[in-house]
Amino acid sequence: MKTISENACFGGVQGVYSHRSDSCDCDMTFGLFLPAEAKDGPVPVLWYLSGLTCTHENAMVKAAAQGWAAEQGIALIFPDTSPRGEGVADDDAYDLGQGAGFYVNATQKPWAPHFQMYDYVTKDLTDLVLKEFPIDGARQAITGHSMGGHGALTMAMKEAGRFTSVSAFAPICNPTGSDWGKKQLTAYLGSDEAAWASHDASLLMAERGFDGPVLIDVGTKDQFLDLLKPETLASAAAQRRQELTFRMQPGYDHSYFFVSTFIEDHITFHAEALYA
Amino acid sequence: MKTISENACFGGVQGVYSHRSDSCDCDMTFGLFLPAEAKDGPVPVLWYLSGLTCTHENAMVKAAAQGWAAEQGIALIFPDTSPRGEGVADDDAYDLGQGAGFYVNATQKPWAPHFQMYDYVTKDLTDLVLKEFPIDGARQAITGHSMGGHGALTMAMKEAGRFTSVSAFAPICNPTGSDWGKKQLTAYLGSDEAAWASHDASLLMAERGFDGPVLIDVGTKDQFLDLLKPETLASAAAQRRQELTFRMQPGYDHSYFFVSTFIEDHITFHAEALYA
After folding, report:
1. How many domains does chain A have?
2. Which of A64, A110, A145, A205 has a C-alpha 20 to 30 A away from that of B33?
3. Is the CB of B268 inside 8 Å of chain A's CB atoms?
4. Once rounded to an integer, what is the mean pLDDT over residues B249-258?
């Protein structure tokens, strides 16, 4: 692991590190905020998965999360959204390839050799941060924005028992039924739709749900509402009687101005679960 | 005036607008955050002047200021740091020309036709925002970062009576004695150092001071401490018996991670003066 930068931030440290990922077979970069409490021993952690076109940097710089994490004594991890580098496949579209890993393990050419983002987050990066930093693996929570909201919700439901709580900002809720999903799931997983179901938050909600609290925020003026399909997830959660807070926030759009407005609520929500 | 974007943000609106500046003789872009209270009538305003290489966007996206401004019912204005555009002079160096206006009115070629940033902020943009938005001109405060801290301090002292309070993050405190200053003041104002004095916060502090509270934060690990010369300003303020809080913050550097950590303190500080 290589340290790229470390900046003092709210009494803790905002670091950026790179490391070799076996799953993605390339070097990966991530951001990690450690609160002051980490000097004294392991702290709980909140994963933040970013959206299309983002890197490890966007949320770290624009979500205004560190102050609230510092107040709660919680670490934040900001993974990248895809493998990157010269040998890594890419596409001209903003929503496929580099910057658009969709948090799945690709099985199709040309993506399969590097696009293993599900395993990268849940295995490689998890193992690394638990080994290298004072983070309490028994107290993990997860959130994300847009494509990262999809990642957070699907990982939380698939990795049962790992996360105390899950939240999302404007998540892609039903990729098997959306142009933000069909194209990418076809490219990464192939045209057999049976392989897609385990990466669709609404289908997972209907099938298994989440054993803990769920918080979802979506802006009523989100320019991508038709692609996100929050109604599908809300419906599935209600039918399941899932513990859930689902909020449509009047006037807000898809931007980080929306995320930063509600990040305090999300971190407080996760803190309650992490410290329960 | 043209609206470039408006995003809901902490119950208010984060807008970006462009307009024609007579002083700079070109189109200029600025950011403006209006809190929810602006719907009901004029609100106090805090100016935020940015540093070298920044645009109107950096602080608006990275300083995490809007949440605290919303809590206090205060508007935020984020001006650009220089004139821009095809007909506008520039330099290959990051610290001269576009992105580096130093908040002075240039008198020298090739800068004089457009680089009139002192008048742009204190006249053109002030007139525009007071005319176009519900902002209370009688309740203005000013802050800034690095080159923008220099701008905030010098404007606050020169425009006596206009600002209730002034603060700065890692300001350039003594440009007449620093490589962050001598080069630019020579280029913009000429080699006669007499013309520089009225743009040096330490000299202005010694000569006239500020009629109100002053708050300065500087990181002890700021990589530009030798260029900022905070000791010169601290000394001048102490000799003058200026009302002042001057803090060296252990471990912090020059980045926006430093700014965002202490922005709450600065906005609270200004709110006390604006609502006094």
Report:
1. 1
2. A145
3. no
4. 97
Q: Confidence band (pLDDT; 50, 70, 90) for B14?
A: very high
The predicted pLDDT at position A7 comes to 98
CATH number at residue B217: 3.40.50.1820
Q: What proportion of chain A, given as a percentage, has pLDDT over 90?
A: 100
Those of residues 4-23 in A touching chain B at CB distance below 8 A are: 7-11, 14
Scanning A59-88 for CB atoms below 8 A from B yields 61-62, 64, 66-67
The number of angstroms, rounded, from the C-alpha of B13 to the middle of its chain's C-alpha atoms is 21
User: Number of residue pairs across A and B with CB atoms under 8 Å?
Assistant: 67
pLDDT of residue A50: 98
Judged by CB atoms closer than 8 Å, whether chains meet at B251 and A8 is answered as yes
Could you say which DSSP state residue B242 is in? -
In this prediction the pTM is 0.91
Give the pLDDT of residue A217: 97
Structural domain of A198: 2-275
pLDDT digits (tens, 9 = 90+) for B91-120: 999 999 999 999 999 999 999 999 999 999
Q: Are B13 and B6 in contact (CB under 8 A)?
A: yes
Residue A38 confidence (pLDDT): 98
Say whether B261 and A221 touch across the interface (CB within 8 A): no
Selecting from B7, B257, B260 the residue whose C-beta is nearest the C-beta of A257 gives: B7
The pLDDT of residue B102:
98
CA distance, residue B46 to nearest chain A CA (Å): 19
